[in-house]
Each structure stands twice: as C-alpha cells, then as structure tokens.
Design brief:
Elements: E1 7-11, H1 15-27, E2 31-35, H2 38-47, E3 52-56, H3 64-74, E4 80-84, H4 89-98, E5 102-105, H5 110-125, E6 135-138, E7 141-144, E8 149-152, E9 155-158, H6 161-172, E10 177-179, H7 180-187, H8 193-209, E11 217-221, E12 225-229
Parallel strand pairs: 1-2, 1-3, 3-4, 4-5
Antiparallel strand pairs: 6-7, 7-8, 8-9, 10-12, 11-12
Helix pairs in contact: 2-3, 4-8, 6-8
Length: about 230
C-alpha cells in the first residue's frame, strides 16, 4: 500500500448523513471530500484525484447515475459504489449497467459500507499477486489485465474494473469452466440475487466486446458457470 491516504469522493445530498459518513471514513484513515449535489461533485472530480467514488443516486441538479456516466467519460476504470434509497430491481440493474462496482440500499450499516469499500479497493488496487500473467491473447484480441484494455486491429477499449476482473478469470480458465459461485464471491464478494444478475449483465457486455472475432465465444455451462472458448 502507498503511504498517501486513499481519497474518496462522496456525493450525498443529505448533509447530516454525508457529514456522518465523511467523519467516519476520515476516522478510519481515508481522506474524504463531501459534495451535496451531482454538479458540485463532478466539478470536484475534475479538479482532484480520487481512488473511489461513493455516489447517492437521488441528488438534485445531477443524479448519481448521470454523474457516474460523466465520471466514466473521464476515467473509465474509476471504482463507483452507489447509495440508493430505492430497492427496486430496475434501479440496481441500471447502476450495474453503468458499471457500478457495488451498491448499498438505505438505511445501511456504516460498518458494512466500510467492508464493501475495502473489498472494492482490494480488487482495484491488487497487483496480480494471485496470477502473475497480465497480458492474454484471446483469439485476435489482446487483453491487458493491468491496464484494463482490450485491443483488436489497433482499436483499444478501456474496461471497467469488474469487466477486467471477470475477463481475467475467464482467461485464466480459458476452455475450462469458470465456476459461477467462485466468480461471484471473488469479484462481487457475495452471491446475492442482485450480484448474480449483475454478473449476467457483465457477461453480456464482454460478449459484445468480443464479437469482432467469431472464433471467440463465452458460453453458459448450465448449473456450473461460464466458459471462454478461443
């Protein structure tokens, strides 16, 4: 780990909750900047470096989903955790479609927020200690897990952290089955219903990214998981 503190962008329009979270996270050793609407948060993001963003979905001027899209236009691999007062499946799935690393539904335990935050940071900051290989050939594609890029015919696509992690595990297990529960618990921390739906969304995204080489395919193995064939 680096000596500098982890910097967090916190966008939360409930000032009481926002100040509580900021004080708690700072007490745990983070450096947290609080913004009370999406527009101010985006300006803050443009002017500072952050390691992770915690975004409330329902905010004035610019909502959390719109803010996340704007942030990803600037930094496609920025880890994002959504806070939402809604428990509707559509809202959660929209967040994952944008590329959220995790979400929490209010009211939530502040201790659980810390656990989820640290889990995201472990995933995004680890340096490949579990697998020294970082560059993979997938048919005509070149996938760089460290840079989180997928390249074909000199066209480079930047992947989100979760997209990169999932593709890396598929590459490690190429032409063999990647166990669904293993991927869920390793990348998403737990195998809840929403996380399982999220992984299906990411598998669909990866299939779309790999469609330019017909020899590459991600297939479902019923009752077991997924297999990358190339």
């Amino acid at each position: 780990m680096e000596d500098r503190k982890i910097r967090i962008l916190l966008a939360e329009d409930d000032e009481n909750l926002g100040l509580l979270l900021k004080e708690y996270l700072n007490a745990k050793g983070f450096e947290t900047d609080l913004f009370v609407d999406g527009e101010k948060a985006y300006k803050g993001f443009q002017n500072n470096y952050y390691d992770i963003c915690i975004l409330d979905v329902m905010m004035p001027i610019k909502d959390g989903f719109t803010l996340a899209k704007d942030i990803r236009m600037v930094e496609s691999s920025m880890p994002i955790l959504f806070l939402t007062a809604k428990s509707m499946k559509e809202d959660v799935l929209e967040g994952f479609n944008i590329g959220a690393d995790d979400y929490m539904t209010k009211p939530f335990s502040i201790e659980e927020l810390l656990v989820r935050l640290e889990a995201i940071l472990r995933r995004t900051r680890k340096d490949g200690q579990n697998n020294s290989q970082s560059v993979y050939k997938v048919g005509k594609y070149t996938f760089d897990a460290t840079k989180q890029t997928l390249e074909i015919n000199e066209e480079v696509r930047r992947l989100t952290t979760k997209e990169s992690e999932l593709l890396r595990y598929l590459c490690v297990n190429k032409n063999a089955v990647l166990d669904r529960n293993f991927a869920l618990k390793t990348i998403w921390v737990d195998d809840s219903y929403f996380n399982a739906r999220s992984m299906d969304v990411y598998i669909t995204k990866l299939r779309k990214y790999l469609k330019d080489d017909p020899t590459v395919e991600i297939i479902n193995v019923r009752g077991k998981g997924f297999k990358l064939i190339s």
